[in-house]
Amino acid sequence: MAFLGYGALAALGGALLYANLPTRLTIGAIVPTAAYLSKAKLIPIADEARIDESNLVEASSLFAKGPTMVMAVRRPGCMLCRKEAAELSSLEPNMKAAGINLVAVVHETKGVNEFKPYFKGDVYFDKERHFYGPNQRWIPLWMGFLRVGSYVNIYKAKKAGFTGNTDGEGRLLGGVYLIANNELVYSHLEKEWGDAADIDEVRAAIEKFK
User: Fold this and answer.
1) Which of 4, 19, 81, 124 is deepest in the core (most CB within 10 A)?
2) Which Gene Ontology molecular function entries are recorded, alphabetically (predicted)?
3) Any catalytic annotation for residue 1?
4) 12: confidence class by pLDDT, cuts 50, 70, 90
């Protein structure tokens, strides 16, 4: 019996260790190119209940209007994503002054209406999950729940007064991208739940356009 107990503890320890490894080693982390992102077919979302899938907008047309900051949202109903959306939106005046457009893409529409108050930009439905590739990073639920960083991020979000729900698909990690002149100027690939882009790094990227 003691042997089984030690075995269970060893297995748990191994799972904890593996779950907390850098996710670039476990699920990958390939940064997309601007050319790849430009091919995404997006659907503007005015209301999550009324999605017109015939109204497609190619990402390249958004990029053609000028530098574009894109938040690829992991899950609209998540308090962690709402916190990051609010933080990015706090820099919207800086982006506007620098001629940068702020937009978000989602891979599911559920919860978008409740997400919008946190985000000062247009929201698009990326049905083909293009902005989540080219190597989609799906973090298993067990791994997400065993990562120490997940709980640290949840604590910070709750302390800041953010709320959310558990509706929707939360395993597909998102990111933040700044595209300008057909180049990827800045990128952040979400490593775990609530791993938001460093706001100071985003601000520094914006300052380059002033």
Assistant:
1) 81
2) antioxidant activity
3) no
4) low
Q: In whole angstroms, give the CA distance from residue 176 to residue 21.
A: 22
Q: Kindly report, residue by residue over 87-106, the tens digit of the pLDDT.
A: 999 999 999 999 999 999 99
- Nearest-angstrom CA–CA distance, 53 and 161: 35
Instruction: Assign 103 to helix, strand or coil.
Output: strand
Single out the catalytic residue among 19, 42, 78, 189: 78
Buried b / exposed e across 45-60, counting CB within 10 Å, b at 16+?
beebeebeeeeeeebe
Residue-wise pLDDT for 15-58, tens only, equals 788 888 889 889 999 999 999 999 999 999 999 999 998 999 99
d(CA 56, CA 46): 13
The reply to whether CATH 3.40.30.10 applies to domain 23-207 is yes
Considering 81, 104, 154, 196, which one is annotated as catalytic?
81
